[in-house]
């Protein structure tokens, strides 16, 4: 990019995305950092655009993040993540009346799963179940392939999974712990009908990825302004709530190994 | 691990009531404090760590049937928790003694009542009256308690059946006086209302007092208009002198300046006017109306004086600013005609009691004496507020011929 404005890509999975990034752009301006954003309708297009160098950086799902790293042979630059992106877990939730006592009992049952490209509601829970010795092919998958291209950002497919469990169309289902916790905390889960059978090991979620050739000064300026956002500042808090975090964190890479393994195993790179 | 606080959660699942015990318990802890949750629910072993992750509390583990949680720091409400109050005979004055008003207030706390712990990061509110010494004199809560106890009912408390039949000229004079009073009461309703929304809720007792004042003024408007229409008369004339004078009141942006000009000077002058009406009322109902409204007004004057005196005692530069406020108003009004003539004539006839020429001459004397009494009483109030004799003389002389 020739000018000194940082151009960031984000996927418009919801109208609130415009509010979020316009708000963050205002905050960056107040910090003396010029930033603008381009919105994409899906992560595949965003990743291609980043790899061509038409944007400086992208706010990526874990799936998009590991794909960028693979395509750049590890030369892309990770800049930051949400606190909620660390130690994400997935849950296998079961109906209490389904007689499922152990993971093996899932075989032969209807297992509701989220979108094909949802890390937390499909890719990783199925990966970890296989690792635990479950023959996933023996379960009857009830798949909610909604919002493909959004990598599970909308949470729609996870809510569909919970709904299918509540009304008995499925005996088990996979969801991320964020949706599971929020739905429970809001009183929208019936504890008489459903409960958690299994929690996966932790994995990390979204990441800001910069193009390998991105200007290092821009990357540093981006991080400085990003980490200056504070939960206790009213204007920041509104944006952080919308984006689902309390604090921006430094990047870390150790939380993506399980996803890479799952993508290889499921031939989904 | 030693817990700061422990709760018994039985077999409650996270989504089935557990949080109703956990969340209030965490609110009692400072960041870093440890909560032990004794739970026999198997699902909680899975769900509680996830909930802690999302809420940024640290889940420390499960030992001896207890989950241990370290309270996170994000979003922790600020301030000390209120604890152990047992108000004896709860009154606003006792509440202020127990929970004193802060010297200054922070607009970020919004409508949170004084004493509540406030979660940080809330939106900023447009309150701009943020200093106790400019908003809330020490006696405000006591005045509020008195005002609440002194409310009266226009229908019940005025002996309406005593109005009777008067000489049409006298009844017409009463109606003109009532018209004038109601018009001025409208300004006394509108002017303080503009400031209530600007007062920080830390000084809510001032907003509460002003709301009793608004209720008083509403009642005054009502009672004066009823009196004008109860005995065959009807409303009289509204003068440009009055209209100009009241608009200038509405234009004050500074709370203390407005309180000074409206309450100390304007409502103060009205005390003498209402006493005059009571003294010369042609029937007991009209006298009772004047007496009761005057009682209310003296409370408004009392609060205005307390407000101004307290502000002056903490900021001596205010003397000059208040004097300038009076001068500015006088310069825009430049009353040349004196007291609005319909009012002047009505007060004269009211005091005369008839249209007989010798009685009218006495009425005219009474009116002149009223103007002198108003001037003298204003000077006394200005003196009590702390102004010098010269300042008081000047400001009283410059005061509007409209009385308010
Ligand atoms: Fe009044
Ligand atoms: Fe009043």
CATH architecture of the largest domain in chain A: 3-Layer(aba) Sandwich
In total, the number of domains of chain A comes to: 2
Sheet-strand content of chain A, in percent, reads 15-25%
Classified in CATH, the superfamily of the largest domain in chain B is: Ribonucleotide Reductase, subunit A
Largest sheet of chain A: 6 strands, mixed
How much is the radius of gyration of chain B in Å? Answer: 30 Å
Instruction: Specify the biggest β-sheet of chain B.
Output: 4 strands, mixed
Share of helix of chain B, binned = 55-70%
User: How many DSSP-defined strands of chain A?
Assistant: 11
Return the domain count of chain B: 2
Determine the CATH topology of the largest domain in chain B: Ribonucleotide Reductase, subunit A
What form of chain B results from the Cα inertia axes? elongated
Largest chain interface and its two residue counts?
A-B, 30 and 22 residues
Overall CATH class of the largest domain in chain A: Alpha Beta
Mean pLDDT over all positions of chain A = 96
Low-confidence stretches of chain B: none
Question: How large is the count of helical segments of chain A?
Answer: 9
Order of helices and strands of chain B: EHEHEEHHHHHHHHHHHHH
Major sheet strand order of chain A: 2-1-3-10-4-11
Explain this structure to me?
The complex is a heterodimer of chains A (269) and B (404). Chain A is α/β, with parallel strands linked by helices and 269 residues long. Chain A folds into two domains: 6-85 and 204-265, D-Maltodextrin-Binding Protein, domain 2 (3-Layer(aba) Sandwich), CATH 3.40.190.10; 90-199, 3-Layer(aba) Sandwich (D-Maltodextrin-Binding Protein, domain 2), CATH 3.40.190. In chain A, 36% of the residues lie in helices and 20% in strands. Chain A is built from nine helices and eleven strands. Chain A has helices at residues 16-30, 43-51, 62-71, 119-131, 156-166, 177-185, 216-227, 234-243, 257-265, and strands at 6-11, 35-40, 57-60, 77-82, 90-95, 110-113, 140-143, 172-176, 194-199, 207-210, 248-249. A six-stranded mixed β-sheet of chain A has the order 2-1-3-10-4-11. In chain B, helix 7 crosses helix 13. Chain B has two domains: 5-70, TusA-like domain (Translation Initiation Factor IF3, 2-Layer Sandwich); 132-398, Ribonucleotide Reductase, subunit A. Chain B has 15 helices and four strands. In chain B, strands 1-2-4-3 form a four-stranded mixed β-sheet, covered by helices on one side. By secondary structure, chain B is mainly alpha-helical. The mean pLDDT of chain B is 94. The interface between A and B is medium-sized, with 30 and 22 residues. The complex binds fe (ii) ion (2 copies). One fe (ii) ion is lined by residues 188, 217, 267, 297, 300 of chain B. One fe (ii) ion binds at residues 185, 188, 216-217, 220, 293, 296-297 of chain B.
């Amino acid at each position: 990019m020739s000018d000194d404005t940082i151009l960031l890509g984000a996927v418009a999975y919801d109208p609130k995305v415009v509010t979020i990034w316009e708000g963050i752009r205002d905050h960056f301006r107040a910090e003396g950092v010029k930033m603008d954003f381009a919105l994409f309708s899906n992560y595949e297009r965003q990743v291609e655009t980043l790899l061509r160098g038409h944007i400086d950086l992208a706010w990526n799902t874990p799936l998009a993040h590991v794909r960028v790293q693979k395509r750049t042979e590890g030369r892309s630059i990770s800049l930051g993540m949400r606190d909620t992106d660390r130690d994400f877990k997935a849950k296998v939730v079961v109906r209490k009346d389904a007689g499922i006592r152990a993971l093996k009992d899932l075989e032969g049952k209807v297992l509701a799963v989220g979108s094909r490209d949802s890390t937390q509601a499909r890719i990783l829970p199925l990966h970890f179940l296989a690792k635990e010795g479950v023959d996933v092919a023996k379960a009857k998958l009830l798949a909610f392939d909604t919002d493909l291209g959004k990598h599970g950002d909308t949470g729609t497919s996870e809510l569909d999974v919970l709904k299918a469990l509540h009304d008995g169309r499925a005996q088990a289902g996979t969801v991320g712990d964020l949706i599971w916790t929020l739905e429970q905390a809001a009183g929208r889960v019936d504890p008489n009908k459903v409960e958690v059978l299994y929690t996966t090991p932790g994995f990390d979620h979204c990441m800001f990825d910069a193009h390998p050739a991105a200007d290092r000064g821009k990357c540093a300026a981006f991080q400085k302004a990003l980490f200056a956002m504070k939960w206790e500042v009213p204007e920041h808090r509104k944006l952080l709530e919308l984006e689902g975090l309390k604090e921006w964190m430094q990047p870390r890479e150790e939380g993506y190994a399980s996803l890479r393994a799952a993508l290889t195993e499921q031939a989904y790179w | 691990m030693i817990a700061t606080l422990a709760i018994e959660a039985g077999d409650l699942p996270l989504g089935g009531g557990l949080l109703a015990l956990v969340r209030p318990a965490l609110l009692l802890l400072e960041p870093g404090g440890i909560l032990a949750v004794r739970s026999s629910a198997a699902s909680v072993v899975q769900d509680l760590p996830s909930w802690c992750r999302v809420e940024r509390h640290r889940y420390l583990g499960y030992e001896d049937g207890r989950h241990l949680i370290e309270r996170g720091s994000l979003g922790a409400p600020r301030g000390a928790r209120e604890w152990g109050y047992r108000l004896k005979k709860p009154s606003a004055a006792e509440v202020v003694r127990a929970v004193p008003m802060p010297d200054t207030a922070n607009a970020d706390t919004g409508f949170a009542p004084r004493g509540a712990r406030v979660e940080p990061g809330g939106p900023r509110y447009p309150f701009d009256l943020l200093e106790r010494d400019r908003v809330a004199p020490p006696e405000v809560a006591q005045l509020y308690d008195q005002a609440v106890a002194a409310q009266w009912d226009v229908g019940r408390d005025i002996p309406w059946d005593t109005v009777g039949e008067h000489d049409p000229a006298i009844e017409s004079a009463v109606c003109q006086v009532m018209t004038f009073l109601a018009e001025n009461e409208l300004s006394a309703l509108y002017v303080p209302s503009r400031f209530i929304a600007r007062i920080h809720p830390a000084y809510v007792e001032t907003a509460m007092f002003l709301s009793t004042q608004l209720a008083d003024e509403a009642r005054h408007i009502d009672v004066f208009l009823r009196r004008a229409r109860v005995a065959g008369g009807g409303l009289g004339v509204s003068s440009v002198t009055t209209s100009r004078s009241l608009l200038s009141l509405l234009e004050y942006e500074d709370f203390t300046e407005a309180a000074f000009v409206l309450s100390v000077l304007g409502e103060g002058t009205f005390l003498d006017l209402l006493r005059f009406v009571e003294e010369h009322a042609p029937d007991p109902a009209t006298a009772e109306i004047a007496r009761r409204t005057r009682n209310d007004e003296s409370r408004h004057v009392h609060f205005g004086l307390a407000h101004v005196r307290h502000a002056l005692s903490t900021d001596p530069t205010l003397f000059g600013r208040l004097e300038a406020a009076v001068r500015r108003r006088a310069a825009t009004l430049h009353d040349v005609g004196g007291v609005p003539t319909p009012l002047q004539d009505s007060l004269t006839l009211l005091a005369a009691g008839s249209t007989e020429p010798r009685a009218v001459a006495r009425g005219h004397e009474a009116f002149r004496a009223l103007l002198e009494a108003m001037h003298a009483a204003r000077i006394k109030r200005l003196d009590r507020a702390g102004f010098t004799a010269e300042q008081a003389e000047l400001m009283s002389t410059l005061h509007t011929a409209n009385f308010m």
